[in-house]
Design goal:
The chain is an alpha/beta fold and 269 residues long. Helices cover 23% and strands 33% of the residues. It contains 5 helices and 11 strands. Strands 1-2-5-4-3-6 form a 6-stranded antiparallel barrel. Strand 4 and strand 5 (89-95) form a beta hairpin. The longest helix is centred in the last third of the chain and has 17 residues, at 252-268. Residues 1-6 and 99-105 have low confidence and may be disordered.
C-alpha cells in the first residue's frame, strides 16, 4: 500500500533525530549514508524520491544544542534514495565534493558525508514530495546531474513498464555510473562532465506527442535546458518539472535567493 506524502510546507515538519547505522562509498563520487530512528512516524511507504533537510550548526556540526537562541540551523536538501520499513532505515546518497571549488559550494554536508561515523546522529526535517511525474504522458525526457541522480533513480523506478523516452545523466566520471531500474522503452545515456550536456540533449530525436520533462541539475545548466524545452520546443510549464539543485560557487542559502529571483523573472516573462 502506498501512502500520499503530506504536502504541508517543509517548515511545518518537526526535526527528528536519526542515527547513522552505515556509511559506504558506492562510487568514487557518491557516498551512501544509512539512517535509522523514529521513521515510521513521518516516513510513509513509497517516499523514495521525496526530499529531506539535514540540519547543521554554523560550523557544520550536528549538535544543535550549541546553537545560540538567535541562530537557526543551516539546512541542506537531500533525497530519500531508499526506504526500508522492515529495517526501519533510509538511505541518503550524497555527492562527495573533494575539490576546493565544491568545498565552498557544499562544505557543510559534503564534509559530514565523508567524515561521519556509525553511531553519530543528525537532525532531519521532512520528507516532502517533489512535483509528481505525469505518468499518462506519451513519452518522457529526463535530465539529471549527480546531485539529482538519487531523485531521478527513484522517479525512473516508479514509471509504468510501458513508458518510453530518454534519460540523460551526467556524472563526474565513468566509474560513477550506477545500475538503475528503467523501463525498457526509456533509453538511458550516461555522460561525464567532460561531455556537452546541452548539445547532447538537443541532438535527441523528438518523439511523437507532448513529453513530460523532468530536469534537475546545476542552476545555469537548468536555465539553458529550460530555455530549450520552453522556447525552442514550445512546451507548457505544466508538462515539466525543471529545478536547479545547486549553483556553482554559491552556498545553498545563496542558491535559494537566486532561485526565487529566477522564478519571479520567469513568471514575469
Amino acid at each position: 500500500m502506498i501512502f500520499i506524502i503530506d504536502n504541508k510546507p517543509m517548515t511545518q515538519h518537526k526535526l527528528i533525530t536519526l542515527t547513522v547505522v552505515e556509511t559506504k562509498q558506492i562510487t568514487p563520487n557518491m557516498q551512501r549514508i544509512t539512517l535509522t530512528g523514529p521513521l515510521q512516524e513521518s516516513f510513509p511507504l513509497g517516499c523514495e524520491g521525496s526530499y529531506i533537510k539535514l540540519a547543521f550548526d554554523q560550523n557544520g556540526g550536528t549538535d544543535l544544542s550549541k546553537l545560540k537562541p538567535e541562530e537557526a540551523p543551516r539546512l541542506r536538501t537531500y533525497t530519500v534514495r531508499h526506504y526500508h520499513p522492515e529495517k526501519n532505515t533510509i538511505d541518503i546518497d550524497m555527492v562527495r565534493h573533494n575539490s576546493d571549488n565544491h568545498e565552498q559550494e557544499h562544505g557543510l554536508a559534503g564534509r559530514w558525508a565523508i567524515s561521519v561515523r556509525v553511531g553519530q546522529t543528525i537532525q532531519v526535517r521532512g520528507p516532502a514530495e517533489i512535483k509528481p511525474v505525469n505518468t499518462a504522458s506519451p513519452w518522457f525526457f529526463f535530465v539529471a546531474d549527480m546531485t539529482a541522480l538519487p531523485a531521478l533513480s527513484a522517479t525512473l523506478a516508479k514509471l509504468p513498464e510501458h513508458a518510453v523516452g530518454y534519460a540523460y545523466v551526467q556524472v563526474a566520471q565513468r566509474e560513477d555510473i550506477q545500475q538503475l531500474k528503467v523501463p525498457s522503452g526509456v533509453k538511458l545515456q550516461w555522460l561525464t562532465e567532460q561531455e556537452p550536456l546541452l548539445a547532447t540533449i538537443k541532438s535527441a530525436k523528438w518523439l511523437e506527442g507532448i513529453p513530460y520533462v523532468w530536469c534537475a541539475c546545476e542552476f545555469e545548466n537548468m536555465r539553458a535546458l529550460r530555455d530549450f524545452f520552453i522556447r525552442e520546443n514550445n512546451l507548457d510549464r505544466n508538462n515539466m518539472y525543471v529545478s536547479s539543485y545547486w549553483k556553482k560557487g554559491v552556498t545553498e542559502e545563496g542558491h535559494k535567493v537566486m532561485k526565487r529571483q529566477d522564478a519571479a523573472e520567469l513568471s514575469a516573462s
